[in-house]
Every structure is written in structure tokens, then in C-alpha cells.
């Protein structure tokens, strides 16, 4: 059953997609959630599909934006799904695949962020925010520093 416009919330896929097409709103959401500055948005899309591998599992990003040195995906999760951590990892890898051509230096990969806005705690630890980074096991070396 479809909702009327008056019944839609920010977390409804239709409304989220429409709202996040506005560069200033998308930029504000990212800056407020991550506490980082986003430069001039060079590309912005809702429901952006990546299916780079012929036999692979493609993805559809709820809201995707790029500035000169960052790529950012924002996903709305209204229901808990199993293996959300693995899903985030897969989305990250597919975004990287799209941004690096054959023979290109890995240094050309942009800094990337995957944001999952969840209505429920996906890891059950009663935290409002979870942050994940790639780093060496003892925390002294980040993978992108090599």
C-alpha cells in the first residue's frame, strides 16, 4: 500500500532519493554525520547503480556523491539485514573498482565513505554511531599510508 506524500518520512526510499538529489542537502547531511568538509560536488546521484563485473553482484546506492577528492555513499536501512558489515565492505570495494582503471596507480583512489543510516542498531551494542577504518592490527599504520 502506497503512502500519501503527507505520510512520507525522510527514511522512505522515494522521499530520501528526492531530497538527496539536492547538492546542498546532501553536502549538509555528510558534513553533519561525519564532521568533515565536502568540497564542491562534482557528481551527485540517487539510486546509482554499479555493476562492473559481468557475472558479479551489482549494487544500487541510495545516494552517491563525489567532490574532487572524496566519494561518499549514503544508505538508508529501514530493516535489519544479516551481515551488514560485509555488505558495507562489498559496497566499498565496488566503488573502488569503478574508480580505478586497468593499469592505473592505486594512489588515484579517492578517499571514500560508506554511511548506513539505520533505524535499528545493526550490531546490537546500543551505540548510535559506529565508525570503521582500515588499519594495521595494532593501530599504528593505516592501509592508505603505505
Describe this protein's structure.
A 4-stranded mixed beta sheet has the order 1-2-3-4. The protein contains 3 helices and 4 strands. It has helices at residues 13-19, 23-34, 84-99; strands spanning 43-50, 59-66, 70-77, 111-118. 14% of the residues are buried. The chain is globular, with a radius of gyration of 16 Å. The protein is α+β, with helices and mostly antiparallel strands and 146 residues long.
Number of helices: 3
Name the overall outline: globular
- What is the percent of helical residues? 10-25%
Record the strand order, biggest sheet: 1-2-3-4
Major pleated sheet: 4 strands, mixed
Q: How many β-strand stretches?
A: 4
The low-pLDDT segments are none
- Through-space gap between termini: 52 Å
Mean pLDDT: 86
Strand content: 15-25%
Secondary structure category: alpha+beta
Order of helices and strands: HHEEEHE
Radius of gyration: 16 Å
